[in-house]
Design brief:
Elements (H helix, E strand, L loop, with lengths): L2 E5 L3 H12 L3 E5 L3 H9 L12 E6 L3 H13 L3 E6 L5 H9 L7 E6 L20 E5 L6 H13 L3 E4 L2 H24 L6 H4 L4 H7 L6 H9 L2 H25 L4 H22 L14 E8 L4 H11 L6 E6 L5 E8 L4 H10 L3 E3 L1
Parallel strand pairs: 1-2, 1-3, 3-4, 4-5, 6-7
Antiparallel strand pairs: 5-6, 8-10, 8-11, 9-10
The structure holds nicotinamide-adenine-dinucleotide and prephenic acid (PRE).
Protein name: Prephenate dehydrogenase
Pathway: Amino-acid biosynthesis; L-tyrosine biosynthesis; (4-hydroxyphenyl)pyruvate from prephenate (NAD(+) route): step 1/1
InterPro entries: 6-PGluconate_DH-like_C_sf, ACT-like_dom_sf, ACT_dom, NAD(P)-bd_dom_sf, PDH_C, PDH_N, Preph/Arog_dehydrog, Prephen_DH
């Protein structure tokens, strides 16, 4: 692939464009809001000048409700040899395109299973898709050349291609993305009118559970509108677990010993089932989950602190596998948790101490 056109230069479009530019592809950027395309260009994601002729691949990264119309327009104008979209739902856009009577041999629906709770080009990074699954949904109509262009994009983004049927994809993401998103919003919604004295105690647990609740509701209404049935089915199961859990907790409040035992069993069952599901969540790069050791560093809330820690870890030859930051309530300080391979933890600890960092347990 030598040339690409990214239409919709928000988080996902600009991240893909950055990855393509890094691999030497000439990328043109377009957005119905020209300011977004200009910002993406200023970030080094390509040029916001229109291409002079058809590009090799058009990547449509607009919100799901606009995908079919944007693709249809691009196809009718002959902007590219191959076309793909990255929308979070696949069945709906494909049906809309079919209904428009377009020749779909030059199109393939795709979905990178990676994103952020922030929108827009300023949230984009060229490594957003590294090691993540990227679903491709070819049909009998899809040209091999177009499938190959899509595989090239996935490879340039260092993602892992996964081929699926569009409707099977939509059922799968209802389970691993759409239902969890709503549950996260429901937990976060409890905080809206909560006492400040309670909210200020928020720790890492609630941050993990509510991070995605910060996402743009306009994008998510589009996604959920295109996949309501499977998500409603899953939430029905969640509601039944909730009812059981409430019953068990009420039993725990009882003065009756037998009822309390019943309650303990009910809650234990829920927590144990949770453990059993959680261990199935794949680790980084789609591999089995790994156990890292955590090195905790106290930092001042000042610019450049994280960059210095990463540089010092690099000098010590230690790869940081994951990182979390916990801000101390009411103080200009925070704790950085650096997750590393167990054998690297003492090496990193010693190196950071020697460089003057304060380590915590
Ligand atoms: N955010 C995620 O985590 C994530 C992950 C994977 C896939 N996706 C999918 O990627 C797509 C883009 O999501 P995002 O998070 O980058 O959103 P975003 O809001 O960051 O960017 C969307 C961009 O599309 C532009 N746009 C809107 N309508 C348009 C139109 N008609 N023509 C051209 N441009 C238009 C907007 O101006 C905006 O710049 C969506 O289809 C979404 O389902 C999102
Ligand atoms: O990590 C996040 O912020 C995301 O919400 C990413 C996430 C997901 O649920 O995994 C969200 C929607 C996309 O369609 C794909 C990825």
């Amino acid at each position: 692939m030598r040339t690409a056109l990214v239409i919709g230069t928000g988080l996902i479009g600009t991240s893909a464009a950055l990855a393509l530019v890094q691999r030497g592809v000439t990328v043109h950027l377009a957005d119905h809001d020209p300011e977004q395309a200009r910002t993406a260009a200023a970030l080094g994601a390509g040029t916001d000048d229109p291409p002079q002729g058809p590009v090799d691949l058009a990547v449509v990264a607009a919100p799901p409700a606009h995908v079919a119309a944007v693709l249809a327009d691009a196809m009718r104008r002959g902007l590219a040899r191959g076309y793909l979209d990255v929308a979070s739902v696949k069945g709906g856009p494909h049906r809309e395109l079919t209904a428009l009577g377009l020749d779909l041999s030059s199109y393939i629906g795709t979905h990178p299973m990676s994103g952020r709770e922030r929108s827009g080009p300023l949230a984009a990074t060229g490594d957003l898709f590294e090691g993540r699954p990227w679903v491709l949904t070819p049909t009998r109509d899809t040209d091999t050349e177009v499938l190959n262009l899509a595989l090239e994009l996935v490879s340039h983004c260092r993602a892992v291609p996964v081929v699926m049927d569009a409707d099977a994809h939509d059922r799968a993401v209802a389970l691993v993305s759409h239902m969890p998103h709503l549950v996260s919003s429901m937990v976060a919604a409890r905080l809206e009118n909560a006492e400040e004295s309670a909210v200020r105690l928020c720790g890492q647990g609630i941050r993990d559970v509510t991070r995605i609740a910060a996402s743009d509701p306009r994008m998510w209404i589009d996604i959920l509108s295109a996949n309501p049935g499977p998500v409603a089915d899953l939430l029905t199961d969640v509601a039944s677990d909730l009812e059981e859990t409430v019953r068990a907790l009420r039993a725990l409040q009882s003065a009756d010993d037998a009822k309390r035992v019943e309650g303990t069993l009910g809650i234990t069952d829920m927590l144990t089932r949770g453990n059993a599901g959680q261990v199935r969540v794949p680790g980084k790069h789609g591999t089995a989950p790994r156990t890292y050791e955590t090195v905790v560093v106290l930092i001042d809330d000042q610019p450049g602190q994280l960059a210095r820690i990463f540089a010092d870890a690099d000098r010590a030859g230690v790869n940081i596998e994951d990182v979390r930051i916990e801000h101390a309530t009411g103080q200009q300080a925070g704790l950085v948790q650096l997750m590393v391979e167990p054998k690297a933890a003492p090496v990193l600890g010693t190196a950071l101490r020697e460089r003057g960092w304060a380590l915590r347990q």
